[in-house]
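Example 3.2
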Amino acid sequence: MPLTARTLHRLLLPAILGLTPLAAAAASDVTILRDEWGIPQVYADDVYGLYAGYGYAVADDRLFQMEMSRRSVLGTVSEVLGAEHVAYDTETRANFDQAKIRSQIEALRPEQRDILRGYAAGYNKRLAEVMADKAALLPREFTEFGFEPTAWTDYDVAMIYVGTMAGRFSHYSNELNNAKVLDALVAQHGEAEGRRIFDQIFWIEDPLAPTTVPAGEQYHKKASCAGRGRRQPLRRPLGAPGPERRGRSAACQQPLDPRAEKDRRR
């Protein structure tokens, strides 16, 4: 796959962002570079632009998945998949207080809220492009299920985290189950052997797991892509396991060291 790049230029578009109508723009251009494996890397000089690129890339890759993820955490699945999902939606809505979450979003500092707004902005930018050419760009699943995707707000972005990372997939939701397994293993095999077996079942990191990208080849300095990719200028976007997110200044001053990156992620 050849290297490709898209640039979201510094143009201001009005939009309904977050919880109130406003117009917003990043202070810099945003460049999304896709490497040979199609992995997006986002470059920008400010937080808003960085997350706008992030949201755009996610919408480009996972529009239907993200639409259903949002509905699954907001409790609106039955609106598009039918009455058999009403019970699920009802239970989901009972798990959070919408007003409290909105008030917490309103209380965020501007640089924090830029993360949510930027992501929604970039996501909506790609969504607008898809809806302008539905025959060519709209994922087939929308047609098969008979509905269309809708624009996101910063509340939607926050709820993806609240409903998945902080709830559905967070470690705390598995701690009691893990403790029961550990107790059973220790009772059956003894303390030392039980813990050894437990560590084999619930390993934190598997250094022997195979990867699909050759070591040392997964990073590209943005400057090295000049002239190699297909640059498609786009208008400034409308105003979150994801794409590589890097500030332009740090990413372009020196080549990225995959070993250092691996250490940082630990």
